[in-house]
Sequence to fold (624 residues):
Amino acid sequence: MEYPAEYRYSREHEWVQVTGSTATVGITHHAQDQLGDVVFVELPSVGARLQAGGPFGAVESVKAVSDIYAPISGDVTEVNESLIDAPEKINEDPHGEGWLVRLTVADSNELPQLLSAEQYAEYVAAEIDG
Amino acid sequence: MGRVRQHQALEERLLFERSSPGKVGYQLPALDVPQVDPEEALGSAHVRDEIPGFPEVSEVEVIRHFTRLSSWNYAIDSGMYPLGSCTMKYNPRLNEAVARIDGIIDAHPYQPECLAQGMLEIQRTLEAYLAEICGMDAVTLQPAAGAHGELTGLLLIRAYLESQGDARRVVLIPDSAHGTNPATASIAGYEVVEIPSNRLGMIDLATLRDAVDDSVAALMVTNPNTVGIFEQDIAEVAAALHERGAQLYMDGANMNALVGIARPGDFGVDVMHLNLHKTFSTPHGGGGPGAGPVAVKRHLEPHLPLPRIRAAESGLGFDWDRPASIGRVRAFYGNFGVLVRALAYILAHGGDGLRNATVDAVLNANYIRKGLEGHYELPYEAASMHECIFSDSRQAKHGVKTGDIAKRLIDYGFHPYTVSFPLIVRGALMIEPTETESKHELDEFIAAMRSIAEEAERDPGLIRSSPVTTRTSRVDETRAARKPILKWQGAGRE
Fold:
């Protein structure tokens, strides 16, 4: 699986794509692969204030419930409502249709602290071997 | 040819499908009192002529239906149940005989205290024995199960810290914890901070010390932990917490590895719960209910739930005058019938017997570990306690995962082990035989698991499509979770 080069990645397996002052956040292909079939997603409300590194929701699969952590800080402007009826989008298109929330970028200095696509791919490979 | 019954256990229609208009399972005698019009007595809004789709069947059809369904059940009474972390031990029939003694079986929670002295004595004795087994000072029997005990325990910690004028906001939880621990801390209003395990599968002391500050109310730890390993630094862990004014909560889910050998109170635990339906052989699961007594050290005792049992000159009674109590956590006095069974188990074993059960439980788990270690990957080298954990990494190379191996185990006549838990082990197989199983049964289980490991290399497709000998093979778990159908869809339809 290719990790889009224009995204940044967290060590908790979330991705973030920044367009202007808006960021879109989702979980990575590796995360959905480890979770297995996603059956339920719990997302914050529009207006919620996310803190980088803090949990903001949960993804439930047939195997486990996992918290999702905000890769950067910001206020939620939009949530992917379509996941309520079709959580399988997270498995089918984790880097696209399966996005979770959009937020305003509160501090663009947080972005360089995240991993590049290449660094994330190496991080995942090391985790699998470890 | 239509439906043919191949085997009574393999083909069973729903009662709805058996229904035949006008058939009944009862015959009422002729009315010998004046007839009352139900619409007049109850109001027409409360009366209906018929229940749509309600099955009309005879008594023998109902009896046979449910008797046949019951034979599909897999239970500890039909075979080994190696579900890791659940301690599915045999429920001795002696427990049942004791619970059915006249006076116990007819006891009522509204009985006056003077007529319930025996019931109070049973509870007081069990409290004392559990306190002794755990090395703690006081016990409440009220919580209805493990997670309920956890919540009670954290509320006790909150009440204690608040009474010290030092309310705190963080609960630390190792990443190997039971999922109920973070859920409990969150429900109790605490912020959860996860502590990563070290390479040995244990709490890392240095990491813990860094994480404990004045905001930390408690650490919730399971010991032995969910990797089946004893936290060898537990006394230092307790000291590190106490130095900073934090409390140590122990999830007693794995007490079957400690009873009669080590006492949590002696290694620094402040509050813990027990699962009587695990460690103390009371019925588990749907046949429960459970019981999750909470044991505390003296400083938490004033906060225990109401009421407390108290001895006076006039006999035993309930003490309601406890201003520092967190209040009630359960109606009446907990799941009393379960408490009776647990006390029967303790008394039947005695101290030496309980210790022997622990030793056998640990021996059995290590016997399985030794029998399978050449066939399945062991993620942690540290000695196993009452359960052993493997990973599916060798089998995964052939496309066979832990869930597939578990399904295949059903074909060999065993209940599956715990699948994909703990989460810190990728593709975990978690096996807990308990002391119940004989060497013969363990050998058969090991032979089945070895055979499956061999099949994974030779014929992985077979395992991925198993079970093949059961009435239903794989069900679509994903669809069941995403689009659950929770009632019979035929009702009210024509």
